[in-house]
Amino acid sequence: xxxxxxxxxxxxxxxxxxxxxxxxxxxxxxxxxxxxxxxxxxxxxxxxxxxxxxxxxxxxxxxxxxxxxxxxxxxxxxxxxxxxxxxxxxxxxxxxxxxxxxxxxxxxxxxxxxxxxxxxxxxxxxxxxxxxxxxxxxxxxxxxxxxxxxxxxxxxxxxxxxxxxxxxxxxxxxxxxxxxxxxxxxxxxxxxxxxxxxxxxxxxxxxxxxxxxxxxxxxx
Length: 220
Hints:
It is an enzyme of class 3 (hydrolase). Its EC number is 3.6.1.27. InterPro entries: PAP2/HPO, PAP2/HPO_sf. By secondary structure, the chain is mainly alpha-helical. It has one domain. The protein is 64% helix and 6% strand. A two-stranded antiparallel ribbon has the order 1-2. β1 (200-206) and β2 (211-217) form a beta hairpin. α4 (42-65) runs parallel beside α6, α4 (42-65) runs antiparallel to α7 (142-165) and α6 (119-135) packs parallel to α8. It is globular and about 45 Å long.
């Protein structure tokens, strides 16, 4: 499976396992939240993680709605890559939430027990990977495509580190979040590319309760 073999999936996941198996997780977290070498303070790191995630979310939307270049659109039948971005983001959010509920890891700051994995980082990684995928389909030079893709993933990495400096997550939390976000985005892209059926949307009205149901489906 391409999603598992992707270095941006297995490398941070392996690093998370290595760090979690030693006392490095706690030591790095304590040092980062005490010294704040990049963002200056825990409040600054918190604000930065929110802002950087928003930047990547915007980039995922912008690159999704931009017309493709020499390559085809991401979804079969040119359904639109914005659907890919939406479903990947939703899938990442659902999986991250389920893992938080099942692991109950306390945050470094003790606020709650939803530390693992980092949802900020997972979302940022998903957006970065989606943006990078879309850039590959644009009529840009190889150099420009590489710079943009590196920039997207660098912002995702900065988001991850900001969560550590903010004392909201341990290093293992953000590393696994990065791996999860990339995995989801690549898996979604891979699944849709390998299918001959397009993504579909629908709205149905339940006359009994007088409510509307929004439905979305994609082939696997």
